[in-house]
């Protein structure tokens, strides 16, 4: 008999979602826009401490809107973290602009400030500065924001914070998603809280978010008839899904706590194994630990990350490789890439050695023990340490 499947990051409802959805049914407000959308935006603003937010259909849509609001268009250059999900960069292509990819650094696995500086110096030489920089907080870990912001301010280029994976994380007292000119969250089914699909654009610039709402509802001019002077999109979140979001946001702190506990339990029982290293947490930052990520040094422990993934899969455990860096994607084979140093491409190393383990906030202890045993057995170490069950 095959063992029950353990998922990477399944949804975890609070039970209150249906209350808000039910309200929408009672009032027959089954539409994009509505009281749940307004309330979800307000509640998010209060939680993260930002002035305005627009709930949209996906994190990808939110990034797209941010690029439009920053005036990114045909032929423009946008710098973007390389070690991320494709959704960080796809909207750059929607705008006919060119992404240039920036490597990671080892302390956070996020954008390397020194690679970023190099990219800026090159741009300056060529006389074309980027229109924006997209900075990702990978798996919940904040990037080195002080350094990155200092550099971007020096060249006067705005930042889009792709916080799709880092809602609930904190950088030096500030909520993840509030550190750039625009912040982006995703509520896709696998994220720390979900609306099944959805996203949000945040900013302290009220008029920019008002413009985002306008653009995401087909850019309809204020006229008695249907009149349009600019390209619009159908990106607004539905009132039903926003109801799910409200129920989810109520428990965000619990979800962060649970994911961090999952991480700690893995680390406690696997951290001492030779060749295993967990994703770091930079001092002054607090990660939501959306996914527990670790690297496996094949030379030390005799098993590669790819082999470990196969072993886990054979046990019906859904683990995943680290994102394949975007500069390695066929889609971006012509795009420029700036590595951390002449001798190091950190994102490529992480891609080869890294895996993500099941990290759901509803992961059962006995399931986590099953995963830990599977890895311990394979690495087959001499240690006599007992697992408690
Ligand atoms: C999930 C994710 C997105 C996109 O969010 P969607 O809501 O799925 O469009 C963007 N960036 C990163 C880093 C993500 O993990």
TrEMBL record:
<dbReference type="InterPro" id="IPR015422">
    <property type="entry name" value="PyrdxlP-dep_Trfase_small"/>
</dbReference>
<dbReference type="InterPro" id="IPR015421">
    <property type="entry name" value="PyrdxlP-dep_Trfase_major"/>
</dbReference>
<dbReference type="Pfam" id="PF01041">
    <property type="entry name" value="DegT_DnrJ_EryC1"/>
</dbReference>
<dbReference type="InterPro" id="IPR000653">
    <property type="entry name" value="DegT/StrS_aminotransferase"/>
</dbReference>
<keyword id="KW-0032">Aminotransferase</keyword>
<keyword id="KW-0663">Pyridoxal phosphate</keyword>
<dbReference type="GO" id="GO:0008483">
    <property type="term" value="F:transaminase activity"/>
</dbReference>
<keyword id="KW-0808">Transferase</keyword>
<dbReference type="InterPro" id="IPR015424">
    <property type="entry name" value="PyrdxlP-dep_Trfase"/>
</dbReference>
<protein>
    <submittedName>
        <fullName>DegT/DnrJ/EryC1/StrS family aminotransferase</fullName>
    </submittedName>
</protein>
<comment type="similarity">
    <text>Belongs to the DegT/DnrJ/EryC1 family.</text>
</comment>
